[in-house]
Amino acid sequence: MSYNVQGIPVLNDNYAWLVTCPDGQRVLIDPGSAEECVQSLRDGRLDWILLTHHHADHVGGTDVLRKRYGACVVGAEAPGMPRLDTIIRGGETLDLAGLAVQVLATPGHAIGHVSYVMPQVPALFCGDVLFSAGCGRLLEGTAAELFASIRQFDVLPDETWLCAGHEYTESNVRFARQVEPRNEALEVYEAEVLRLRAEGRPTLPVRLLGERAVNPFLRVKTAEEFSVLRRLKDVS
Ligand code: ZN
Ligand code: FE
Question: Does the pTM exceed 0.85?
Answer without folding.
Answer: yes
